[in-house]
């Protein structure tokens, strides 16, 4: 009979405080406290984020344990996000995890945030799990990567952005359009009513499987400036078409490299992960690949796209099986390679 392993996961890499309780690969609870204070600043303010984590972390952990109907004495180990992320935010989660581990005398497990996004695909669900090897496109506000996954804890970075992440490209364009933060989901919303072929934006031509999104951001800014000089109401009159065209360009860029990597490595299983994987066009493009090109694709549920502790807990479970524990000298890493 399989041993039941209960992991308490803690996530605090940016502006969401989250705690989750897992039993092996089954998620018993996943609680997220979102910080709304950053909206009026148009982006995450690191100092404010860390202060809110301090206020939220105890109530969030308590809520997760109650929802899971699990006591602290039943927890086998504590997994936490070590990085990458905002240093102040990471310090709150790391310090809490270390203190609780010491108090309960149970193992402590450090987790790479980007690895956890990928391993969210191994949370028990009706969709099943990807078979190794597979390629995962990880897309978020801070990262854009193509990762070859050959085992639960074996990752090979094939390509990544050389400047801005695709999530930042979405949010900066939204800001140029005057949309409130976070703007990426709003571009997706308006794009669904627009003509994706109305306007053309450049796709970068980086080497191998790397990306660049700084050029399209600059081109988009100049495009909007030029058009609004000719027509002050250009954005209001063409918002849906602008969003659809811009979003399509970003999707084209992402999937061109992903397909190139899949063909070169002869891999027919593809997955997507990270906050931007909630984007409807990216999800549809993956479905199209499965329907038209015979790829096997895996798309996370919306609950596991954005930052959450469930992915930390399930990653902690796989590291627990290999006794991948750390000691209390562990420190957070704002920059933490895959």
Write down the secondary-structure element order. EEEHEHEHEEEHHHHEHEH
Radius of gyration: 20 Å
Q: CATH H-level name of the largest domain... which superfamily?
A: ATPase, nucleotide binding domain
| Content-based structural category | alpha/beta
Percent helix: 40-55%
Low confidence ranges = none
CATH class of the largest domain: Alpha Beta
Describe this structure in words.
It contains nine helices and ten strands. Helix content is 42%, strand content 19%. It is globular and about 65 Å long. The two termini are 34 Å apart. With 338 residues, the protein is of the alpha/beta class. The strands form two sheets. Strands 3-2-1-4-5 form a five-stranded mixed beta sheet, with helices on both faces. A five-stranded mixed beta sheet has the order 8-7-6-9-10, with helices on both faces. The chain has helices spanning 46-68, 87-104, 113-119, 166-176, 184-191, 214-230, 234-264, 280-293, 309-321, and strands at 6-11, 16-23, 26-34, 77-83, 108-112, 134-139, 144-151, 154-160, 269-273, 296-298. Helix 3 crosses helix 9 and helix 5 (184-191) crosses helix 7 (234-264). Strand 6 (134-139) and strand 7 (144-151) form a beta hairpin. It folds into two domains: 6-120 and 305-321, ATPase, nucleotide binding domain (Nucleotidyltransferase, domain 5, 2-Layer Sandwich), CATH 3.30.420.40; 130-300, 2-Layer Sandwich (Nucleotidyltransferase, domain 5).
In short:
This protein has 338 residues and is of the alpha/beta class. It is 42% helix and 19% strand. A hairpin with a 4-residue loop joins β1 and β2 (16-23).
């Amino acid at each position: 009979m399989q041993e039941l392993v209960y992991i308490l996961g803690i996530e605090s890499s940016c502006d969401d405080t989250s705690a989750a309780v897992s039993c092996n690969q089954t998620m018993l609870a996943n609680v997220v406290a979102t910080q709304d204070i950053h909206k009026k600043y148009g982006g995450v303010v690191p100092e404010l984020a860390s202060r809110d984590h301090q206020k939220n972390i105890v109530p969030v952990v308590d809520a997760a344990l109650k929802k899971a109907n699990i006591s602290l004495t039943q927890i086998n180990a504590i997994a936490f996000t070590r990085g990458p992320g905002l240093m102040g935010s990471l310090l709150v989660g790391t310090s809490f995890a270390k203190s609780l581990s010491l108090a309960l005398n149970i193992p402590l497990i450090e987790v790479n945030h980007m690895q956890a996004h990928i391993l969210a695909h191994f949370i028990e669900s009706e969709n099943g799990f990807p078979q190794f090897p597979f390629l995962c496109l990880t897309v978020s506000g801070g990262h854009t990567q193509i990762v070859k996954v050959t085992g639960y804890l074996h990752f090979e970075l094939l390509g990544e952005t050389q400047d801005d992440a695709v999530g930042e490209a979405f949010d900066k364009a939204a800001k140029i359009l005057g949309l409130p933060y976070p703007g990426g989901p709003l571009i997706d919303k308006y794009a669904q009513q627009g003509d994706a072929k109305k306007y053309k934006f450049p796709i970068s031509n980086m080497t191998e499987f790397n990306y660049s999104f700084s050029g399209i951001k600059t081109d988009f800014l100049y495009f909007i400036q030029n058009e609004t000089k000719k027509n002050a109401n250009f954005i209001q009159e063409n918002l849906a078409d602008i969003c659809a065209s811009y979003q399509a360009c970003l999707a084209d860029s992402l999937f061109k490299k992903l397909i190139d990597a899949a063909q070169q490595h002869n891999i027919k299983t593809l997955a997507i992960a990270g906050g931007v994987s909630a984007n409807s066009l990216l999800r549809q493009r993956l479905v199209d690949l499965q329907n038209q090109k015979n790829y096997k694709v895996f798309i996370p549920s919306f609950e596991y796209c954005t930052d959450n502790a469930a992915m930390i807990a399930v990653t902690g479970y796989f590291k627990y099986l290999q006794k991948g524990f750390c000691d209390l000298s562990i420190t957070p890493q704002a920059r933490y390679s895959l």
